[in-house]
Amino acid sequence: MEKDIMALLSHNEKQFSKGQRKIARYISEYYDKAAFMTAGKLGKTVGVSESTVVRFAAELGYDGYPDMRKALQEIIRSRLTSVQRIEAANEYMNQDNILSSVLCSDIEKLRTTLDECDQEAFNAAVDAIVSANSVYIVGMRSSTCLASFMGLYLNLLLDNVHIIQDTAASEIYEQIIRIKPGDVFIGISYPRYSSRTAKAMRFARDAGAKVIGITDGQGSPFVELADILIFAKSDMVSFLDSLVAPLSMINALIVAVGVRTKENISDTFKRLETIWADLAVYENAEEHSDG
Question: What's the pTM?
């Protein structure tokens, strides 16, 4: 489980040396800035040596200073306002090459997600979706696009999929009022976590449905609500969240469900291709190539 660095700072305060107390006070007060500082810069800011900062991270139980800084970056994502995010981004993003900064960050999150993925949880989620009487999918705020994408494709594979619309709070419960044992509820949320999604998950759990949470890690409120947890790393990119890894994880879930229901896929898409052609849903590539 991820270490709660703020709790560690408070718990170990009396054991710190004078220099370590300076570091702890600065992190506690300016965690949004410290999260993107090098060990040397943090040491210079508080008036201690770089080696003191490195030893401080080890004293808290981290593998090194980068590990401690990563822990800080994880907690600030759910605490910062959009304005604070923009200010924090200026500390670590290469302003002269934003394209490279963003794409490299996305690649890193994909690698981390792959390295840390729980195959058993993934398989359990696929089993639950395939065997469900009905599947309800909820994602709000920035996660709305993830829920819509997942719902679009699962709806082509299964005949019992409901995408819950992000409307007034009371209307959300009206859309899931019939959820019951044998059903599956999929909640998707990333920092800053949607309280309405969490409340809807709790409602589904209390109704006896199996709850799947797609989120970023142990710091998510979904940990206490979901029967099955699927973690995919997101990242703070200035005022927005990168959802590349979560989308890739959802792609994998959809493909896995498709493999499990492959006997239905061929017939479904044959019918769809006929409908799409009749309605001219897509541009005709042959007509364009002739021109």
Answer: 0.71
